[in-house]
Amino acid sequence: MKFPVPHDIKAKTIPGTEGWERMYPYQYQFVTDDPQRNQYEKDTFWFYDGLHYPEPLYPFDTIWDEAWYLALSQFNNRIFQVPPVRGVDHRIINGYVYISPVPVKDPAEIGERVPNFMERAGFYYKNWDALEAKWKVKMEATIAELEALEIPRLPDIEPLSVVTEGIGESTGYHLLKNYDDLINLGIKCWQYHFEFLNLGYAAYVFFMDFTQKLFPSIPLQRITQMVSGIDVLMFRSDDELKALAKQAVTLEVDDIVTAHRDWADVKAALAKHRQGNAWLAAFEKARYPWFNISSGTGWFHTDRSWNDNLNIPLDGIQTYIGKLREGVSIDRPMEAVRAERDRITAEYRELIDSDEDRKQFDELLGCAKTVFPYVENHLFYVEHWFHSVFWNKIREVAAVMKEHGMIADVEDIWYLRRDEIKQALWDVVTAWATGVTPRGTTTWPAEIEWRKGVMQKFREWNPPPAIGVAPEVIQEPFTIVLWGVTNNSLADWAAVQDIGDPDSITELKGFAASPGTVEGRARVCRSAEDIRDLQEGEILVAPTTSPSWAPAFAKIKACVTDVGGVMSHAAIVCREYGMPAVVGTGVSTRVIRTGMTLRVDGSSGVISIITA
Amino acid sequence: MGSVISAAALPWAALDSVAPKVCSFEECGKDSVQLVGGKCASLGELINAGVRVPPGFALTTRGYAQFMREAGIQAEVAGLLDGLDHEDMDKLEEASHAIREMIESRPLPIELEDLIAEAYRKLSVRCYLPAVPVAVRSSATAEDLPGASFAGQQDTYLWIRGVDDVIHHVRRCISSLYSGRAIAYRMKMGFPHEQVAISVGIQKMANAYTAGVMFTVHPATGDRSVIVIDANFGFGESVVSGEVTPDNFVVNKITLDIIERTISTKEICHTVDLKTQKSIALPVPAERQNIQSITDDEIGELALMAKKIEKHYGRPMDIEWAIDKNLPAGGNIFILQARPETIWSNRQRTTGAASSTSAMDYIVSSLLTGKRLT
User: Is A487 in CB contact (< 8 Å) with chain B?
Assistant: First the structure.
């Protein structure tokens, strides 16, 4: 495989974006002035992490990239010492993130790392459950700290207590400190994010790998099915909506709950009834922490939570009430899922020829089942709960900046790097202390306007899927998972992208994620807000789905996504409900339009556009 | 090589003298190879395992023995075979020709003719077809056995109708036991001629709209979790002989969904010529050449049957099947033949896992190897 040289792409700056590099940390740049680094960059294979970053990064949102850059690399290289690989290096081109695992090239050094890895990673695998219990305590404490963190407004005069209690600190200092604390909590939370993740991925990936060696034709969806039916937090928020739907019927307020599309109207109507108030209390109880669920992946500030838009969970509850009235069970068929999992596992196991292989299969399956809950649950704690609270705390910081004229709108803050925000807060605080106007009020709004234009141009640019020289093998577990998604789909995506006219495309390919074939009307939903328009029996076409989209699956008969693998949310939910899914198609939301008739074959991964 | 074949030396002479001379497939099973040969025994076994097989009956080895005895040609046959060299094809063919002519010119004993005619009449009644078209196929006692492949050494005649024609082809099947190739093969392998007997199967022709073969193991990778199906329009001959590139389907054995499908351009199919009542090759009309020759539902049912057959035999199988166009859906898919798959089954597959014992060891060794990017 041949891909462009990074510096050549960099040399072709998109007109009007000159100087874009200052929007991102300096160490993320490909360089030409340092011969050694330049050579390293040329010799390295960089692939575009489209799974996490389908859009160019806002300067502030780079925080999670930096966080995992650090956390994953340190665990790989300094804590567990994965023998053949160090960390994962990062670069940015035109706002898109490229990554590359750094191999250990000296065989002797790999050999020296093996006993360390065996001892350290071995300790984690052996004591997984106890360490995971400890993890949960650390994580919940971190979130509690975040929730308690206050972002103070700067007063004209400090309260008298500062004097009478001899405090000796100003609100200005606390604003600076709490901003630092906020950022540090974020970085700490991502330390925990990766504490188990790569070990979990490794167990999972090599269980898949071994099973594919035994059965070269086994669909990946069948391997993931062997670890299905394990209770994970991912479904908990959806379960809360189902419980609220049932309770609305029991309390006989279901007519009121379904009477309006807007939460404010529903709430006002319910508040007039005694039973309605009982239901509202249950609703409030369910919100913590379960409505801290992002309606996207949680990676970006644009992914808002249910708490931010209560119309989304309301719509889910209304869908479930509708199902209950039709007499349809809304419970997930867990018993059936587990029975099918056990049947499939037993039948495959019986086909294994040798006793050694069967034993190895059992060991690896056991290990994959042990790690599975973490691999799923960390998402709720970090990407959903923590991030949902975090983004809003940053919005509180933005409100202070707006108050002092540094930015025109709260949502402008995302165009600043986190260190620039710190600098701007110093500007605000020192000016506040001094009683003058901050310098930033004339510089930042203009800079932000320019950055908005740059981001728009970045969005119109197509990042090449990979750059540099492809290696023959990849050893880093996280990259294997990512590469597994990108490598197989690169060719298909590229083929579609090469076609100038999207209207001429009649067939798309993706991962066969859940078997079966159906025909139906497409509904393209780009956000959780859009799923409110879904009609019964439509085929959902989305960039990706998240746990907060769960109620949509009660209405649809198939699902198609741009991004995601066989372990993605859409894949797992569709398998549970027994409906076809094709995921990781790359471009389906660009090619498919609402109203088209589609045939979705979830066994072979092909989507046919029957009528436009 | 014995020069005189005495009845007492024949293995089937040891069979119970009440063993039938003609019997229906339902009465056969895997233990009846000595009586009805490998093919008929296997068809009986399939029927008794609950697999849908076109009905039929067999002239047994006891019937064959009676024919040979009453035809009075045993000494002459033995004489013609005596002293042959298995590499001298000219001499072999000469002897074969003489023996086959001798066999085909002798009438069947009246008793056998009656038994066959009655069984054929009953078969026709059972199939709701006057003079039901049948396949007349040899079923040797040494074929379709693990370790000895006699497959294809004896003849099969398709689309035979009427008692006289059936009886004539029964004789031709019997005589095919003495084809040059069969004689040479036995000599080379050291099987005494008198140790080999033949039975003849008479089976309702499936009037195949679509037919083909399937394996319960992937022929290319040895993957036991799939069933691979080849299909073309018409009788299965075009698929078996490699005359066309058939449609190919890979079905997940555990869940029965189709995981790969390849629709080929199918230019030829075999069907019956209604004028001559013979099987002929015909071009497939252009508009049908590239359409799927079997429905997804039929693929599902076939796969289910294959799974059942494999389970019954406890090993990967190689299966011939057909879908009858005269019968309604739900009862029109038939298994024509099933035999143990030999290529992968004789090879012990290992993944190289034997060296690592714990999950941890496997994970470390896999990390060291990494994933190849292809």
Answer: yes
